[in-house]
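Q: I'm writing up a methods section and want to include an example of the input and output format. Could you take the sequence below and give the corresponding predicted structure tokens, formatted cleanly so I can copy it straight into the document?
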Amino acid sequence: MDLAQAHADLQRRDTGVKFYLVEHEFSQSLSALKSMIDIYKLNIIEICWLSSNIEEIIGIVETAANIKELVDVDHVTALSEQDLTCSSKIAHIEGQLNNLSNEVSKVQVKDLIEVESKLKSSLDLKKRETKQDLEKEKDHLKILIGSVISLNNI
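A: Here is the clean output for your methods example:
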């Protein structure tokens, strides 16, 4: 079911609620009109005026009844329940995504710490190798200088 259809179904549900309100108002209006006729013994002109109002109200009620026939209240209720179910599922999925995001962040931090440690070890090793190379060069130069001095003494 797509979003547009769900929206249309919800609008039809709202129409059903509106129909109920119109029907209720009609019932109250009709009762009030009957009471007025009984109590005040309205004259012919007033009765004609009331009759036209009643016909107008009946037209509205008939229109509302036609709209109600178009609305499947059970279907609208089912859609509403599906909407609630989907909303709770979405909230659950969002929670799981947040948990996964936190786990990924923890793993990334752990990996970064490990890489930093390896880099430090690598730098320390490189320093030691460079220092050893310098010592070797120093020893080599001492030997060369010693050789040059020996050759000069000869």
